[in-house]
User: Fold these one by one.
Assistant:
Number 1:
Amino acid sequence: DTAVSQTPKYLVTQMGNDKSIKCEQNLGHDTMYWYKQDSKKFLKIMFSYNNKELIINETVPNRFSPKSPDKAHLNLHINSLELGDSAVYFCASSSIGEKLFFGSGTQLSVL
Amino acid sequence: GESVGLHLPTLSVQEGDNSIINCAYSNSASDYFIWYKQESGKGPQFIIDIRSNMDKRQGQRVTVLLNKTVKHLSLQIAATQPGDSAVYFCAENIPSGYALNFGKGTSLLVTP
């Protein structure tokens, strides 16, 4: 069983569209995250949720809206996609203060 | 292990040699450090971690060293194998405990 699964793996879309990425973890963790990896491989925290509550919201445009319906799910919705949003987005989960387990990533390409 | 210019720093080693990947962390209040391995097309994968009350921790073929005085972390891989070729990241916890900050990554290339 995949511990942290995110869908889709690839997402190709036009500028201005709205898209969502879904994430689910079956590890029983109480904290989930979204990270963005740019073309230089730099991994940057976007959001973290603990028990469905938003804890960290880095300087991310408000076009990005995370939603956590329950502790096992953290989805990412992006409005009005821009060229600069092209990147790989990783979902992760952990217990507080422990190592993160990552999904396999969603490669978003905005044309 | 810090990035210079536009490209990831690259460490090239021969199969069977030992590898050392270095990382400078930024926050003196961080108390938990992790090394991750990322293969092409995959998510970062946990290798080994260390808490600030230790200065060395060993796993299978890997050792992490922590020098809090100079805020330096290193990953040693013994008898490097082609399967070790990947990008390696160090990470430090944000003191609140609710995320990790990642370093800029080092690309390890193992040649036969």
Number 2:
Amino acid sequence: SAVISQKPSRDICQRGTSLTIQCQVDSQVTMMFWYRQQPGQSLTLIATANQGSEATYESGFVIDKFPISRPNLTFSTLTVSNLSPEDSSIYLCSVGPEAGNTIYFGEGSWLTVV
Amino acid sequence: EDKVVQSPLSLVVHEGDTVTLNCSYEVTNFRSLLWYKQEKKAPTFLFMLTSSGIEKKSGRLSSILDKKELFSILNITATQTGDSAIYLCAAHSNSGYALNFGKGTSLLVTP
């Protein structure tokens, strides 16, 4: 399976600021995704990070709020902009499909906005 | 609209009990169903099911898919306190590679 590293693992940010989360994979992968998990909720897909082109956002998520970069097949970043307390969540990077179509997740980045 | 529904939402059992977690789905162009265990942050992959009636097993955990009735179950036998976690079910369609998650079942195993 792919090894996925996310940074930071945890951060506390002031409202109005931005946080950039990095996702590094130990092998080249075709598909990378960013999910959000709000407290007590399940995972919701934010966007698909496309290598060399603009990310594909799900309904309810916009590029101005969640800009994503994907400069190569092993790395992506998600920025959460103009933070508000409602952005307090776990943000998860995932990759797949790997062999057998399994999709794996990074360790997650726990954001608290104060 | 695609949806994945898990039941029960929460469950408390005693060590040694057997539990069955349910997942029903309605997904266009269904490809596979995946089960994950989430203890702290990252969901940990458990099973991927693509074919009906074929049980997948890993230790005390097993899972099976029914593509006719559009559901899957995850069984855990002889539960241990370390099984306490949120169990997530997710459906994967052929129209993309992202996953559609259910709300999860929160399992607490008491000593």
